[in-house]
Write a structure and sequence with these properties.
tRNA processing, Nucleotidyltransferase, domain 5, alpha/beta, 20% strand, 10 helices, 15 strands, 5-stranded mixed sheet, 6-stranded mixed sheet
Length: 348
């Protein structure tokens, strides 16, 4: 639960530091009235064919978080006295990494005698995307390793119009990368994207759109089972498989996004989340939007991928409208729905 608190005094600039560590990206960012002062990040990278386990990811965050914190302060050229609020990711995410990051945020808030503020990870992506791109009231496609949602703002909430009913699109891509033993550096999704650019043959794969929702588990199971035989028989190359998987899952995402745009009468679509960096997804969305006379907004890897500045930006929006989190309520949760948050900072 959040408590009410005056978030600003007069016109004094508000400076917020944000801690993000919900998955394998550890980031700390500092925002001052919408301006990104710093945004360093450190990524936990595992060997090809392996994912990242919560315990090992938490150990990574614990080992690097103080160095990243010092980098954030040094790059921003601010001291703890300049910080007005300490924001951290409350959820959703992986339990151990979330807690390991929140512990440091709570400690820093107490050491610096600053208000603490728990932020919804998904809201962080949306508010950072809106700030960076200038999108006013877009339909949002939020796509990452842990989440896949089509979202639109209405009546003080970010409403979920459609979502995955099983695994996230990023998780689908990452798990297929393990089948092909694709490198996790800088990320499996990025490496699949590069391989897909060289693909020439489109393999027919299951298409899992169910109304406004999508399903990726079936297409993943199918391509996992078929991959080796297709490769052995030379019916497809690894590049063809990456191309086919990308084209199919992105077509599904574009379809449900277009349906949400039609329902809302929106002329803007904003793509956020780690998978949002994918240029092919942006291209396919752009084709759909152009046919509707709409615009596509997206950010690059600085802000699409999990980062501390997005938590600071959402924290800034919340803090200036009166939110803080009591220390007793500064827990983390692996399940924290986007539509659970009351969006008090938007007047439209």
């Amino acid at each position: 639960m959040d408590q009410e608190k005056q978030g600003a005094e007069g016109s004094k600039p508000i400076t917020v530091i944000g801690f993000e560590g919900s998955a394998n990206k550890l980031g700390i960012g500092i925002i001052r009235d919408g301006e990104v002062l710093s945004n360093p990040r450190h990524t936990y990278i595992t060997p090809p064919g392996e994912g990242f386990l919560p315990r090992d990811t938490a150990k990574h965050h614990q080992a690097h978080i103080l160095d990243v914190l010092q980098q954030a302060l040094d790059i921003a050229k601010v001291s703890p006295q300049d910080i007005d609020c300490v924001a951290y990711t409350k959820g959703p995410g992986m339990g151990a990494p979330l807690v390991s990051t929140a512990v440091v945020a709570r400690t820093v808030a107490q050491l610096w005698n600053k208000p603490l503020l728990g932020v919804n990870h998904c809201i962080g992506h949306i508010e950072m995307g809106r700030r960076v791109t200038g999108a006013v009231n877009p339909v949002v496609l939020y796509v990452s390793g842990g989440n896949t949602q089509v979202i639109a703002y209405q009546l003080k909430k970010y409403r979920i119009f459609g979502e995955t009913i099983d695994i996230a699109v990023g998780n689908c891509l990452d798990r297929f990368a393990r089948v092909l033993k694709i490198s996790n550096d800088p990320s499996p999704g990025y490496n699949i994207e590069q391989m897909a650019k060289k693909g020439e043959k489109l393999i027919d794969l299951p298409y899992g759109v169910k109304g406004m929702d999508v399903s990726f588990s079936g297409i993943l199971s199918y391509i996992e089972d078929a991959a080796q035989s297709l490769l052995d028989s030379k019916q497809a190359t690894p590049e063809d498989l990456c191309f086919s998987l990308q084209e199919t899952v992105f077509a599904m995402l574009v379809e449900i996004t277009e349906r949400a745009m039609a329902h809302c009468g929106s002329e803007e679509v904003l793509i956020v989340g780690g998978v949002g960096c994918n240029e092919r997804l942006q291209e396919m969305m752009g084709i759909m939007a152009a046919e509707r006379g709409a615009k596509v907004f997206a950010t690059d890897e600085r802000y699409c991928i999990d980062n501390g500045a997005m938590i600071a930006q959402a924290g800034w929006e919340m803090f200036r409208t009166g939110h803080v989190t009591a220390l007793a309520d500064s827990w983390c949760t692996q399940r924290f729905r986007t539509d659970e948050v009351e969006v008090t900072w938007r007047d439209d």
